[in-house]
Amino acid sequence: MIKKPEQGMTIIVKTITRYTVVLILLFGIYFIMNGHLVHGGGFAGGIIVALSYMHVMLAFGKEVAMKRITDKTIQFLVGLGSLSFLILGILGMTKGYFMYNFFRTPGVDYIGKPFSLFSSGIMPLMNLAICLAVASGFFSVFLALIFYRLSEDKK
Amino acid sequence: MIQIQIILVFMIIAAAIAIGTADLLGSVVAIGAVGLGLSIVFLLLQSPDLAILQLVVEILSLVIIIRAVGIKDKVNVRERRFIATTISIILMGIFLTFANIALLEIPGFGTPIMKIGSEYLKNGFVQTGVPNIVSAIILDYRAFDMLAQVSIAFASIIAVLMIIRKKVYKEKQ
Q1: Which of A25, A84, A101, A150 to mutate to test the interface with B (most CBs of B within 10 A)?
Q2: What is the ipTM of this complex?
Q3: Residue of B nearest to A55 (CA)
C-alpha cells in the first residue's frame, strides 16, 4: 500500500495509519461484543468501525480502500443488518411474542451466566445486527460523497 | 451545576459563531464545538452511554460535513412552487395539531416520579441478567423502539444515497 506515493496523503500519515487503524477497529469490535456488559452498544461500536474504514480511505486514497471492500458488498450489508434485526424479532414469535428473548427457558430468571460474554440471549446478536446496518450505512454515505466529488472534478 | 451552566454558555456562543461566520469551514468547526460541549454535559449528568455515542457521532458528522462543504455546491433556489409549498404547510399544520393533542394527554414532566424507571431498576437485572441496565432497556423492554430507530437510520441512509446518486447520474449524461 505504501509504495504508491501519488495516491493519498504523505508517507508519515500512511505509516501511522497502518498501526492505528487496527486498534480503532478492535476498539469498535470490543464495544459491540461487550455492549451488554459495559457502556457502549451496537450503535456507537458500528460508528467506530465505519470511522476506521474512513481512516483507511482518507489516508491511502480511493483505489486502495475499494480493493478491500466493494460498494456491492456495502449495499448488501446495509440490507442484511436491518433485515436480521427484524428477523430476530420475528423468531421470537415462535416461543412467545414479537421481540421475545427466545433463548430464555421458562421459569428461570437469568439467561446464561451473568457477567459472562455469552449470556443474555439475543442481545449480542441484536448489537451485531445494529452494528452491521449502522457501520455499512454511514460508510456508504461517505463513499457517495467521495464519488460525487470525483465526478465533478472531471468536468 | 455551575459546570453545566458554563458549558451551556460556551455552547450558545459556539452556535452563534456557527451561524454568523462567512467561512463555511469555520462554521463546521463551531458545530463540532457545540457537540463536544453536549458530550461533556452528558458525562456530567452521569450518562456515559450517551456521552460516548454523542462524541462518536460528532466526529463522524464532522468528517461527512467537511466532505460535503468541499463540494461547493452552488444551487440557487429561486423558483417558487406555490402548490407544493401550500400542501406541505397544510400537512405540517395537521401534524402539529395532532402532536399538540397527543402532548396534552401524557402526564407532566417528572410526574409521577420514577413510576416505570423504578420497576426497571428493581427487576431489570433479575429478569434479563444484563449488568448494563441501558442495554437491558433498549434491547429487551423497549426493543420495538430500537426496531424503529434502525429503520429510521436505514431510511435516511437510502434517502441520502438516492439524492446524491441522482446528481452524479445527471452529470454523466
Answers
A1: A101
A2: 0.82
A3: B63
- For A14, the 3-state DSSP assignment is helix
Count Cβ–Cβ pairs < 8 Å, chain A vs chain B. Answer: 135
pLDDT (tens digit per residue) in A78-89: 899 999 999 998
C-alpha cell at A29: 469490535
**Which residue carries 446478536 as its cell?**
A125
What average pLDDT does range A94-99 have in this prediction?
A: 85
Stretch B83-87: mean pLDDT? 89
Alpha-carbon torsion (A30, B39, B68, A130), positive or negative: positive
Inter-chain CB proximity A141 and B144 less than 8 Å: no
**Residue A3: pLDDT over 80:** no
Nearest-Cα residue of chain B relative to residue A131: B150
Q: Under DSSP, is residue B82 helix (H, G, I), strand (E, B) or coil?
A: helix
Rounded Cα distance, B127 and A111, in Å: 8
What is the sign, positive or negative, of the torsion defined by CA atoms of B20, B23, B28, B33? negative
Residue with cell 456557527: B18
DSSP for B104-128, please give it.
HHSPPTT-STTTTHHHHHHHHHHHH
Report the C-alpha gap between B97 and B87 in whole angstroms: 15
Longest dimension (CA), chain B: 63
pLDDT on residue A155: 45
Q: How far apart are CA A123 and CA A101, in angstroms?
A: 8
Chain A nearest CA to B74, separation (Å): 12
Mean of the per-residue pLDDT values of chain B: 85
Cell numbers linked to B15 = 452556535
